[in-house]
Fold:
Amino acid sequence: MQNRDMPLPVSGRWWRAGAIAIPYAWLLLFFLAPFLLVFKISVADPVVGQPPFTALFPGGGSGLVHISWDNYRFLFEDNLYPVSYLKSVQIAFVSTLLCLLLGYPLAYAIARARHPWRNVLLMLVILPFWTSFLLRVYAWMGVLSDHGLVNNLLLWLGVIERPLKILYTDLAVYLGILYSYLPFMVLPLYASLERLDPDLHDAAEDLGAGPLTVFRDITLPMSLPGIIAGSLLVFIPAIGEFVIPSLMGGLDSLMIGRTLYEEFFSNRDWPMSAAVATVLLLILVLPIMVFQRYQVRERAGVQ
Amino acid sequence: MPDSPAQSPSSDAARRLPRPWDNPAQVPFIQIKGLSKRFDDVTAVNDVSLDIFRGELFAILGGSGSGKTTLLRMLAGFEQPAAGSIVIDGVDMTPVPPYERPVNMMFQSYALFPHMTVEQNVAYGLRKEGLPRADIARRVAEMLALVKLGSLGGRKPDQLSGGEQQRVALARALVKRPKVLLLDEPLAALDRKLREHTQFELMNIQDQLGITFLVVTHDQEEAMTLATRIAVMNAGRFVQVGTPAEIYEFPCNRFVADFFGTVNLFSGRVAGNSGDTLSFRADNLPGVICAPATTCQTGDEAWIAVRPEKISLSKAPPAGSDENVFRGMVWDLAYYGNLSLYQINLDGGHIIEVSVQNRVRSAQRVAEWYDEVYVYWGKQNSVVLRE
Structure:
């Protein structure tokens, strides 16, 4: 703390500049540059050839630029795209809500658990990550299929007479996403709940607030950053999720990831899929910006 | 106290009380009976009973792990006692949840709600009572004025200094006009100057509102200056309950004598107990120590406690009585401005501490390092302790 305000020696300043430059360089190289490439392709026209799209500078050094907005126009003319965007947002939104409803009590219980237990419980939340994601999705398919674990059990118990159709429905997609993304919700929630001073809870109770009121007035608002962080961590990957809907979803679970895949590999329409990807990115950037603004406002309130 | 008017002694409600704890007809305001609490295999509070009277500023003094905080949390209702009962103003509090008790607490950490402004923090308790908006605003403004925070109502707790946060916490706990205010180490987080100031402010506020205060602290100085009465707590039990002067001048055992201020202890045996004088033969000390007569028998093991400020120091043997006069050498000394502390190595090897008030302006000291000196004290200043 003491040497924080002291001027750093020149080598130290280089170190600091270097350390700050690394994440920027990373973002530039692996995010901005690829995005610009994708954007460039999205304003080209598809052609049969290699590469399968028109060049940005068809005239070579003549300075002629070829830009076409046809792909974006087509995105809104064919209702396949709006439908899959909406479906993606819907599935991601509902899954995020489910993760929150299940994850909040879970995170709260872990944060309130006694010390040796707390680490064990956290470990159990993280443990599934140690096996392959794909394997776990296949395992769920086994559990949910017509003659899978759930249906066989229910048949054996006599609760149902014919197997329930669970796999290849939206329900299966919700279950798959809920299962796969729950840790991303639980961990930030746990982090914000664990930091919560138990004295605040006692103080509110002391001032006349019953248990539910304490939760509404203190616990919930104080864990809002965790709720937002967890929701973004679930919502953003869920909206572009490809594996779960294509393996576990029905034909009508047409999420944007699958549309993108088909456009790219089946139709070989690179410019169209690039446009789909660009719009998807814009849809995702919006909630992140809202979150950023919220954080900035929070910090301004503190200082 | 630079900016608050001095209180005349007549407005000092607690001190005007004719010692209600000595009056058997007086009904206690808080009655704690046989209270116990265990955590796993640790007994935090062990069969504690206590009566506190209306308007008292009572302090529970103890080290860490003495059970004082657990006792406070049981009074607030955060912990359920394993046995015993708490009665406040005639109502048994044991089955009452914390949010329905007529008791408010000021937390050591202050526990201010960081997402609320100062005003919202103070108003919180009143809002939970469902008071009309106008009443809440009026009482919050009154309370903020009382703790001199009138202009900071719109700030968030993070934007306040430690002293300001402390006053918000006090205002928030007082605004509901509780029957009892519990204070957990109220001054621990403040620096020395601010502590002294705040201490007097707390006493003034208590006088003005007439609320019964119960302070828990590990700081004997804080307890002594604040409280009408003190309970010294150790290992889950009360060791001694009394006024600050009673506890300081008449400690009941070595723990209290030692915990409360500095004390010189002599171990030894009672050599004689006749008339009004007890004579005591201390280990490693030539001669006898005289003390007021007690119920001790000759030959009993005991201790003599003498406070450093009760001992006189001179370079020549004192004229007159040679009772409790011992020779020694200045071993160490420390100058504090208002007083000087001497460590005297007595003949026989016992090192005692003597404090001398510097009542005359002088660069000269009574004695210097390695001077031969005589220490002496009147026999009434010897406290005989049995345990």
Q: What stands out?
A: The domain at 262-385 of chain B is CATH 2.40.50.140 (OB fold (Dihydrolipoamide Acetyltransferase, E2P)). DSSP finds nine helices and 20 strands in chain B.
